[in-house]
Amino acid sequence: MRTRRLTAGLTLTLVAALILFDAARSAPLDRFKAPPLIALGSGQAAGGAHCAALPREAARR
Amino acid sequence: MTVAAETGGAAAPTASVLTRAGLVAGALALALLVAGYAGGRYGLLLLIGLGFGIVLEGFRFGFAGPWRALITRRDPSGTLAQLVSIGLVALVAFPILDGAGGTVIGAHAPVGFAMVAGAFVFGAAMQVVMGCGSGTLVNAGSGNPVSLMALPFFALGSFAGAYHLLWWTSLGTLPVVVFEGTTGLLITLGALGAVAALLLALAAPGTRRIPRRLWIAAALLAGLAILNLVVAGQPWGVVYGLGLWAAKGASALGMDLSGSGFWGTPGNVERVADSLLTDVTSLTNLGIIGGAFLVAVWRSGLGQGLPDLPARAWVATIIAGFLLGYASRLAFGCNVGAFFSGISTGSLHGWAWFVAAFGGAFVGVRLRPLLGLEGRR
């Protein structure tokens, strides 16, 4: 009988494929350009790549 | 979120100490690798995501299931636990947002026609597949075949919904309304208390208490959500990351995203070009999948047989998966980004989402058996 081992394995395979695909296409990682460990109090503005974020251009309309 | 407990009885085999040690070591090694190659914040966010997955799966803390229990059995225990967790986050998030000076933002979005309609559709779709934003990730990680099928279409829907977002918001959107400061916190906590009181008043006898495991889960989830806010500078979210994964695929296939008022903006162009190991919601999403897998293996819960569903159930899963993604972008978030994070950071749209999605859940509960998805084990 087929079990969840098959589907959980498929999920992990898809995740691994996604990460490898992305690593091959995206800008190289540079840990020296990484932001501070904690955003709070870092002095850097929050990025805003969030589900609730409306692009600023639209928000101004 | 899974039936791991059902397979974790006396007869079920348990994972060996070596297996469990390997799981923990593997998870820590992955987080260290991300920290080493991408940066400490990103490694920490992967750990937070793993924590979300472990808590959600380990304590069977969900969103879709408790709403279903509330609708079908007038059992409010799971929904009350959600309100407790949201309230705990609000207690910490409001002061943080007040004093963060722009380094931390809330999940603030406008209420509008499309936002309300999107939340309604999301509420219905999440009852059809019995998986919300976080639930689909958790269930896929623990080997639920319906969620595994829904997940890629969720991502495609999220991408498409974001692509069209500005057209939808142009149909009618109010200014963003945010409850802030001590007054805002008191309004939020008062409203959460009022909803809890209403649920308790309507509850079936014998259901008016939150089980211990859900108290613990609510507190742990709140702690992780606060950590997410402090470390990332933004609240816990899910659907942005899923849409981003599809956007990267679309870009790789040669699709020009500059025509989209959403994906064509400088911030999102940068997100599509940069590694997903530097994207907040992608990291926590990956962590949720990994954390749920870890718990499933820990409990030896992967031996459960796969269900034999009719073809119409798989078609319904694909359509509902796409709708979950598309509708959650119109609604400015799912049960996590809008309901949990929106309310806990003071956004009115979180409350509008709650009302509309709960209305949709009534429809979804009735649709589910008609689509052949009822009685799935």
Molecular structure report:
The complex is a heterodimer of chains A (61) and B (377). Chain A is 43% helix and 0% strand. Chain A has 61 residues and is mainly alpha-helical. The model of chain A has no long low-confidence stretch (mean pLDDT 88). Chain B has 377 residues and is mostly helical. Chain B has helices at 4-7, 17-37, 40-58, 64-73, 77-99, 113-128, 133-141, 145-163, 165-169, 181-202, 212-232, 239-252, 266-273, 280-298, 311-330, 335-344, 348-370. The N and C termini of chain B lie close together (12 Å). The relative contact order of chain B is 0.23. At the A-B interface, α1 and α2 of A face α3, α8, α9, α11 and α12 of B.
Question: What's the layout of helices and strands?
Answer:
The complex is a heterodimer of chains A (61) and B (377).
Chain A: H1 4-25, H2 56-59
Chain B: H1 4-7, H2 17-37, H3 40-58, H4 64-73, H5 77-99, H6 113-128, H7 133-141, H8 145-163, H9 165-169, H10 181-202, H11 212-232, H12 239-252, H13 266-273, H14 280-298, H15 311-330, H16 335-344, H17 348-370
Helix pairs in contact in B: 2-3, 2-14, 3-11, 3-14, 4-17, 5-10, 5-11, 5-16, 6-15, 6-17, 7-8, 7-14, 8-12, 8-15, 12-14, 16-17
Outline:
The complex is a heterodimer of chains A (61) and B (377). Chain A is an all-alpha fold.
Largest interface: A-B, 51 and 88 residues
Q: What structural category arises from helix and sheet content of chain B?
A: mainly alpha
Distance between the termini of chain A: 57 Å
Mean pLDDT of chain A: 88
- Biggest beta-sheet profile of chain B: none
Rg of chain A from C-alpha positions?
A: 19 Å
Q: For the residues shown, what is the average pLDDT of chain B?
A: 94
H-E string of chain A: HH
Secondary-structure element pattern of chain B, one letter each: HHHHHHHHHHHHHHHHH
The number of E-state strands of chain A comes to 0
Strand content bin of chain A: under 5%
Question: How far is the first residue's CA from the last residue's CA of chain B?
Answer: 12 Å
Rounded to an integer in angstroms, the radius of gyration calculated over CA atoms of chain B is 20 Å
